[in-house]
Amino acid sequence: MNNLTLELAYLYPKLLNIYGDRGNVLTLLFRCKARGINLNVSTIGLGDRLDHAKFDIYFIGGGQDQQQILVSNDLQTKKEGLVSAIENKTIFLTVCGGYQLLGKYYKTHDGTELKGIEALDLFTVAGSKRMIGNVLCKELESGKTLVGFENHSGKTYLAKSLTPLAKVLRGNGNNSEDGFEGVRYKNVFGTYLHGSLLPKNSHLADKIIRLALEKKGLQMPDLKVDDTFEMLAHKKAEQLSY
Amino acid sequence: MISVFHLGQASNFPGKIALFIKKDLIQDFKLNEKSKIILITGTNGKSTTTGILANILKASGKKVIYNKSGANLLSGIITALCSGSNIFGHLKYDYIILEVDEATLPLLTSQIKPDLIAVTNFFRDQLDRFGELDTTVNLIKKGISNNKNTTLVLNADDVRAAFIDSENKKIFYGFSTNAAKGAFNNESNGNNLWQENPEEITTCPKCGSSLIFSNKFLAHLGDYKCSGCGLKRPEVNFLVSLFKTDSLSTYFDITFDGHKNNFFISLIGVFNLYNALCAITIAKTVSNTTNVQVQKGLQSYSTIFGRGEKIDLKNRPAWIYLIKNPTGTTEVLKTLTQIPNARFLIAINDDFADGRDVSWLWDAQFDILSSHKKEIYISGKRALDMALRLKYADINSSQIKVNENITSTITNASKSISQDETLFILPTYTALLEMQRKGLCKSII
Fold first, then answer.
1. pLDDT one-digit tens code per residue, B342-353
2. The complex's ipTM?
3. What domains can be seen in chain B, in order of their start residue?
4. Do B357 and A236 touch (CB under 8 A)?
5. Which fold would CATH assign to domain A5-240?
6. d(CA B40, CA A19)
7. Does the beta-carbon distance from B387 to A233 stay under 8 Å?
8. Domain layout of chain A by residue ranges
9. What global pTM score does this model have?
10. Nearest CA to CA, how far is A48 from chain B (Å)?
């Protein structure tokens, strides 16, 4: 039981840190610990080498345009390893800017194209209206609701071959046009939801942990975590229509 | 005598004993000839004004001693003087700044000769008895009349302070009628809720007719004229001609001697701007401090004290620290967890002025509270998000007491904590406004 260990790579925590996305990492840490799983977190910054063989979970959050330019450039140097990790079914949780950069490009207001790592067949174009507010959506895979807060001007369009993460019940989602939110590919989760996402969507946090364990041939310990606050906070957020 | 009580950190006790033994002890202190004594009195804002003034004068390279926040009775004043003097009672300071309780002022000024007395304001909260305010005004008047040569610094916007009956030299501070134009014209951010303070009925101190206000800046503080005898606000020497406030700081212009000067302070709220204005007026009156030194003092004040505000909660003090963003919150937590017997109440709203997105809670280092073993009270519209944040900061769920209703949370908290504990309330902006609207903060000026 004590030899359950997972390795998480937290990419660019210093640059992509203004939307509270670190709460996702805190949630994974807490829920792993509650089940006797060691989750080791390594932070990866600009210019740092990424040991792709080591990591079971990758996390990338969102930031502002200026930071995202730096991240976009740096990701090009890590592109090959990241793409093969995705193809190898390593778990990825990416939010907002991190999500956008998994695709082909992000075209900003002034027409600049920030290069993505082209792991997924999607692209993002800055829209004229910023999409800000609480989001309620339904995860396609599980039928369970997801709650969060979106704050983006980028409109993301998925290729037909890609499946979204969720159907939007309230809010904008990927582009405020097609009614879908995020992307779901192999073990990749891409989303616009901050909040942070995982604390109030503990079912998704647990799914990520379970997938990471299963990929290593390990089983999720059958231990219940007390979810009282999580459920209440989720229910509260479901009602927020602003 | 003094040497015996030259001890410890206590803010009142040594002075109490000393006074018991020798009633006019205060006369035994020996001052440098050049040292100046400044007294700050009034119903509200004494501590903050004293703190800001001390910082400005320190930033100007002066040696300063002042009494601890709230220790403003004779015993607290003696204690402060004891701790600042050598064993012979010599006080080697350029400035002695004392916040003085209104009733203590006459006692103190009968024994020492202050160079300057500042009167901040006369506020009456709704629960007070009728007539009490006039008693307070008379006490201060008596305190002033003991010394004809003392300069007065008075709040021109408070009619009772401005027209205190005395022949002493007077310097006035106040707001320009248009000062708030920049602050409140942004309708969407809810800042104009500051103006929703309880109304006070204000009458002319000369003829008793009602006053007509061209503008009110805070409760009864404003630019006024008597409808009967024509009395009007005195000409203001230190005038806030414009101010703007964001969620963290107040930026303001003060016009004096015909020049406009910009400053900013990391405090919000019109009440704090009055405190800063009073402190600057005193500093400029008693010293040749430069604007750069004033600004330096204002900045050091915010770093030392955070944005703390002392309030009265059903006869016991509590402190309010506005929280808004991760950095500020982390700083507040770092400071407050150093205080023994601190208890916490956190109120999180997500109204427009707070920011609709509560994600920021996850960037603040609430894990600083993980060694706190007492119950933590959580309130506000997004109390559950806050509760969850604490849970994931390794705070035991059983310690987290959630109740979205701010009024009942504060009532419960102030009932539950013991006498030797201090309650620290950490609200977001609109949670703070809500507390004020509901009269939970009896005196947050």
1. 899 999 999 987
2. 0.96
3. 2-187+239-298 (3.40.1190.10), 307-443 (3.90.190.20)
4. no
5. Rossmann fold (3.40.50)
6. 44
7. yes
8. 5-240
9. 0.60
10. 23
